[in-house]
Amino acid sequence: MHIRTPNTNEIENICDLLCQLGYKQSLESFKDTLNLYIQSPNYGVLIAVENEIIKGLIAYSSSTMFVRGKTRFWIEALIVDSAFRKQGIGKALLKQMENIASRSAHSIIDLVSGISRADTGTYDFYRKMGYKLSGNSRKTYFRKEII
Question: Which end of the chain is more exposed for a tag (fewer CB within 10 A), N or C?
């Protein structure tokens, strides 16, 4: 498996993955967003590819936290195709994200996981990866500090 930045010609496969997260995308409207995430230094998207099949993706944004002075990486999306789960793909994508975050002096990675995912093993996955609950509302917030 190889983790890399996608090409814009892979937009259809990326949209298919986002549908599995519940975010149906129009190819035309999503094209500008994908270009932004590929080209801007404050955004990123990585895909896990094997045998030319996109098996998962992670998308993130980063900014300096106003009240903490740390770099905050916000995971916008993390999805592994349902046909390829439980194979370490999500773990590899999250580890790559952590490697990116570790290039900043002190950073925080935040993500939101919908309450509906609590029973699917998603919360257990984040806990196993070292993320801790950081609030509780209709969505559950996880955080991991990278030192």
Answer: C
